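so i finally got all the pieces together for this one. its two components total, 1386 residues if u count the protein bits. some of the lines might not be protein, just check the labels. i wanna see the whole assembly predicted at once instead of chain by chain like last time, that was a mess tbh
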Amino acid sequence: NMFVDFDIMSLVIHVCHLNRKFTRLPHLAGSQQNLDLAKQIRDEWMEFGLDSVELVPYDVLLSYPNKTNPNYISIVDHLGTEIFNTSLAEPVPEGYEDVTDIVPPYSAFSAKGQPEDELVYVNYGRTEDFFKLERELGINCSGKIVIARYGKIFRGNKVKNAMLAGAKGIVLFSDPADYCADGVEPYPDGWNLPGGGAQRGNVLNLNGAGDPLTPGYPAKEYTYRSSLEDAVGLPKIPVHPIGYHDAVHLLQHMGGPHPPDNWKGSLNISYRIGPGFTDGLNQNKVRMNIHTNNQVTRIYNVIGWIRGAVEPDRYVILGGHRDAWVFGGIDPVSGAAVVHENVRAAGKLMKKGWRPRRTLIFASWDAEEFGLLGSTEWAEDHARVLQERAVAYINADSAIEVCLSICLSIYINASDVNSVFLKVSSPEEGEEGMTLYQSWHKRDNSTERDAPWISKLGSGSDFEAYFIRLGIASGRARYTKNRKTERYSSYPVYHSVYETYEIVERFYDPSFRRLEAVARVRGGLIFSLADSPVLPLDCVEYAMSLTKYANSIYQLALKHPAAMQQHSVSFDSLFFAVENFTVVARDFHQRLDQLDTSNALAVRMVNDQLMYLERAFTDPLGLPGRPFYRHIIFAPSSHNKYAGESFPGIYDALFDIENAVDWQKAWDEVKRQISIAAFTVNAAAETLKPVVS
Amino acid sequence: NMFVDFDIMSLVIHVCHLNRKFTRLPHLAGSQQNLDLAKQIRDEWMEFGLDSVELVPYDVLLSYPNKTNPNYISIVDHLGTEIFNTSLAEPVPEGYEDVTDIVPPYSAFSAKGQPEDELVYVNYGRTEDFFKLERELGINCSGKIVIARYGKIFRGNKVKNAMLAGAKGIVLFSDPADYCADGVEPYPDGWNLPGGGAQRGNVLNLNGAGDPLTPGYPAKEYTYRSSLEDAVGLPKIPVHPIGYHDAVHLLQHMGGPHPPDNWKGSLNISYRIGPGFTDGLNQNKVRMNIHTNNQVTRIYNVIGWIRGAVEPDRYVILGGHRDAWVFGGIDPVSGAAVVHENVRAAGKLMKKGWRPRRTLIFASWDAEEFGLLGSTEWAEDHARVLQERAVAYINADSAIEVCLSICLSIYINASDVNSVFLKVSSPEEGEEGMTLYQSWHKRDNSTERDAPWISKLGSGSDFEAYFIRLGIASGRARYTKNRKTERYSSYPVYHSVYETYEIVERFYDPSFRRLEAVARVRGGLIFSLADSPVLPLDCVEYAMSLTKYANSIYQLALKHPAAMQQHSVSFDSLFFAVENFTVVARDFHQRLDQLDTSNALAVRMVNDQLMYLERAFTDPLGLPGRPFYRHIIFAPSSHNKYAGESFPGIYDALFDIENAVDWQKAWDEVKRQISIAAFTVNAAAETLKPVVS
């Protein structure tokens, strides 16, 4: 089976080299270094033997700290004197002392400003945290500066919640409870976050819009750009990230009530929520000094093509980003190296005369860190052809976060996924002879079907525009934390200067065999999608997931039995639709078993049905208030972009409904969303029926 | 050439019979008679030999007069006594005296109410008419009842304009200037509108939404329905239509200034605009008495299928509506008969062993008169499969309005259109031996290319959802008035009780040979689209039209040279895009000439490019404020639904821009719309390029 066993014997060596090569310098989006790297990748991909490779530029809104006027947070006394300032940069790791252009920790797209006020601690800054503050603890954040710990949800959601609560600034910090594993040393002696490390990151609420100035359209030279006031998703308040050494200073003398126990992180302080400070310093305040600039900047995607031999107008895409906050040892290089090696492997096969049935597209995205900008602009630019021609998109962001798990759009045929996993060897010591599937299953076998857990795709990486906006079947696969046993968020050094090549080499994947395994999985998936005469997509799997999701959203609604009855809310139409889809999907696959695969047109027709099924779940009207999230079955949660929500329209309508101002309206919206979901599932089912009524 | 010369020898006889059969009874949407007719059509289509025929119901909002409380307009004196009332019904034409269920003239979806106030004459009620009233004549319609003559624009736009002007009711009347041809007698002695006749019609502003309660989704049993307050497009004021005999009473004693000469119709009165009355009756007012009810009602489309032999998953649709305001002699029966005879002809061919390459769908739409509801609901219901599979939609509304002209989406290959027209004989007396093309050319040869004029598709008939929302290449062909020589609007008896079978038989098409010619043209188009191995769609034609439209919108902008310069407005990006499209289209057709037509997959691929080109011109974000008008090149005019506007986004941004409140904002919007248009044209061009970069 060519596309699984493709020639990647040299991969392990190359991943190793490449990882080093890609991480010598910072590759911030918009920087000369990142353009140089783009050119290098283009040239190498051409050498590897792709049919064509191009740099594709867009001019998007980025955001950088002011080099001469640094960002920091102060404690100021009653005279206005700054008696404590947070650090301006992270201590640089050994071996990188001479590197210039390390961008200090900052929150990209923060508003400028120097707000000064009392501090309120808001735990993770989640919707439920603000509810607790306002409804149970009686603390009003309006006009205050809030401080939230990183973790649990996307930082942009924290900022949005702070704005909704009326805060005039928000400080984000990494608490050891969330960014240090027990018994592990801080880098460089271990892989925990040092106290001086801080998490960079954008704080946008784009909801899939891409470049904030050109929502819905690619940011080309001639494209109209809105004013900054009309831009999508920019926070209106200053935001800044700090490490836990600095956080202690801000938090240790606060006033106000004690927080609930589960709000206390691992900082060695006596926790108070605020507002204000209680010791002799109770006239002290916190001042944010933020001078970050928004700036339209040119970015570059690298796009490589292998023309399909039989169906050149069917595209399978493997894309991952290239830009990094600093060295990007894990994010994105562990992913970019995988793409690079897959291109190399494909090139080798081509030199032996191979050419895939369908067209393969490889993408090195720029400016993912600034809001998935490179991938979204390209998706906007080519929406029409992608709509018509894209079979699947496989994402290649960070390959390793530690323990083995996998996130996949469940539409990617599980048996096919499994067959890929069955053909790859476990890279773990002591698991010689074990397949990757067995290794995975051993670590995470929680499902009722005695199979490893496959997660819903959320967002926070470049598949978003492809999957959620355009309805292209998408998948991702990587080593990630064990849902059940590992409590910390992402990985400790995430988006800090300590994401180096060495941290991977010393701790995450010393043999680079995990990277190799991920490369084989991602490669296996795209080669299977590009080469199988009948697309390896499984509608019955989709039906099973729909059933699960329908049950789960119904259970959520059932928390309001009286209201359900009073407003005559019924989920019958949705359950009928899911049942209809299930029957139709089963029939479809039965007919598929009888397919005469020598009939090119007949194969094309069922493949069109398979390909367009995911498209059928999208609705051009989008979700309420989120026009670029068009998938009716999956969307990033409105409360945490990183998480995927199923039946998001219904979910959002039900959210906090007991506190709605107008119950009639609120339950009407639930009914409307059920109706839309039911219709969409029926409409998707129709695409799988025999093509003539 | 089978699909042009298909067996319609019997057509002329059948059209004649059918026309009589379909017009014996009123067939108002939602009535038992119209359901009975649907069943009859279903049964006959099955007999003719279609593969399947189904009745497809939807439950949509319709609107009927209150049977026990009729609508009328009064003049009331200062005591409140009604001293004149308009007639409650039209005099019934000879031979139809015993017919029950003739719905009296009314404005469907009018608000209920009995407003009473002074009257203001607003000419045609166009945007420019209200501008003239307010800006030049200093007349304020706020709080008044306005009276507008029918004609020039869609009546719903008149009502919208009246609402925007603050009127609290609007009376619509048919002026002889617009509804009587010189030297022609009123029906039954001629084809002019009698003084007691009035034009029914809906007064919605749906902007393509379909059923007002379920915008974007099919009105099925389980579908969520909005409240009437949230419904799309319902007028908030009473509206009522009257004939010119009644209009004279309302208009003859009005006060206020004299109107401009071109506002005077042909009523034999001394014109005044109002408000109020000047003679001894100056305390008189006008009272509207409107009791029309909105009501969710079941409607039925009839949908018939012929499975394609080679590509069953490619659909060619011929659709026309079945519902009529009363007898529908012209509208819709002259179209419905054509569909019926095409089905019969196709059935005959099938019995001889023929089966089209692609699937043919025949549709008899319901409730077109109530806002294109049947066709739009079906489009919404099947949007996913239509998006994937529909090759083209040919509309079959009224076939004859008198003189020969043709309206076509210009994307339908002109040479192919011409070849159809060349194969049909002229039905005109004295043109024996002449082709239909020659006959057409003789009457209307105004274009610079020495070819007959092909109009832009506007709206007002059932192609709207298919073309403007879904981006399916669409066409219509019928006998219509000569743009240059005939001044009256539509045809005199339009939507009156006088649209009988007899008016067609006596005046419009005594031999029924014009109907036959239209049947051959519409049939020729769908058979060509369904049977040609390579789709007969011409991208170079499209490019030429784009050039024309770009020049024309540029000329419009040039009326503001100073503002253009001040706001740096450039059309360069649009002209570059059109040039790019032109080059790409030419290359595409050159490659097409080299196509190996024996390679099924290769043919499928270019056909996909041809089919999806029209789709590529649509934008899921829609036009500003009109989410269901998604075509960036064509939309119904915002000021007259009947008319097609090219580059409608730019056009609307430029409209009346000299009176914009905020010039900066207004010109920014022009720039944004130019950018969207340029991008869309480039994106469409991309779909025609070789499929791999």
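DSSP finds 20 helices and 18 strands in chain B.
The longest strand of chain B covers residues 293-306.
anyway lmk what u think
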